[in-house]
Design goal:
The chain has 148 residues and is α+β, with helices and mostly antiparallel strands. The chain is built from five helices and four strands; from the N terminus they run H-H-H-H-E-E-H-E-E. Strand 3 and strand 4 form a beta hairpin. The termini are far apart.
Length: 148
């Protein structure tokens, strides 16, 4: 085996520390390690990573994807609009909620890319996802436009 899978990630045997890491660590990796340290705020990297993660989730429906999002504590996604061209997804309780407001900043591109990768796999054809609202920007929740 030369690559890890999402199934591999669920094999946890930490006797003392368990299966949870603090949100502060995740935020630090994302917003200091990737967002601040990489060119273009790490967008190319997080988009590539997120799409791959979404594909590897192995979900077969939007409901499964949303349930997994919540189980993994990524956020609570809700479809706020849907038609034959796409949908709008609001994500409540996102990892960025509570961070200082920085107007004009959208930092949840990884979550959008995860949605994109999973929906592309579910639909069997390319889907595009773009973040249009973010808690860090001062919005009430994070929101994504999905185009089929």
């Amino acid at each position: 085996m030369d690559q890890f899978t999402f199934t591999d990630m669920k094999k946890i045997k930490r006797k003392n520390l368990g299966n949870v890491v603090p949100l502060e660590l995740f935020r630090t990796i994302r917003l200091i390690g990737l967002y601040q340290a990489l060119p273009m705020n790490g967008k190319g990297t997080t988009l590539t990573i997120g799409r791959k993660i979404g594909e590897e989730f192995g979900v077969t429906s939007v409901n499964e994807l949303f349930e997994l999002f919540e189980q993994l504590k990524i956020g609570i996604p809700i479809i706020t609009h849907e038609d034959d061209k796409g949908m709008t997804i609001a994500v409540h309780d996102c990892f960025c909620e509570g961070l200082p407001i920085m107007e004009g900043k959208m930092v949840c591109d990884l979550e959008g890319a995860i949605i994109e990768g999973a929906l592309t796999k579910i639909r069997g054809k390319r889907v595009s996802v773009r973040e249009i609202k973010c808690n860090v920007n001062g919005d009430e929740y994070c929101e994504y436009i999905v185009k089929y």
